[in-house]
Amino acid sequence: MATVLNPYLNFRAQAREAMGFYQSVLGGELTVMTFADQGGMGVPDAEQDLVMHSQLVVSDAVQLMGADVPSHMDTGGDIANGSISLSGDDEATLRGWFEGLSAGGTLGVPLEKAPWGDSFGMFTDKFGVEWMVNIAGSPAA
After folding, report:
1. Which fold has domain 8-68?
2. Where does the record place the Glyoxalase/fosfomycin resistance/dioxygenase domain (predicted)?
3. For a Cys staple, 6 with which of 21, 63, 109, 116, CB 3.0–4.6 Å?
């Protein structure tokens, strides 16, 4: 197995919805495991159907994981996931992902030509996760 670096997102009772949304945009195979599936894990009865672990495998290079943080676990305030960056030279795919993932969210920087020659944009999706998209520009001749 190759070494893979992939984001692991935390949610409060939104992991199933968020991961399903990401799959609807990115494609791939989504697996979801609940706390109940793993014997309860000391989580209150009302939260047994929350996501203990999920994994979306889009390709060898694109994988995303996520889970719900049970209410009894302190997160130190709001859950902050940092930013997820998508980059490459497949303009059609990256533009499609930008449009799909930003739907219902908040646009930070429109996806357009940046000073460094690439196309770049930023947004926060409807689950509060920040995304950056960078599409490689044509190399200078």
Report:
1. 2,3-Dihydroxybiphenyl 1,2-Dioxygenase; domain 1 (3.10.180)
2. 12-133
3. 63
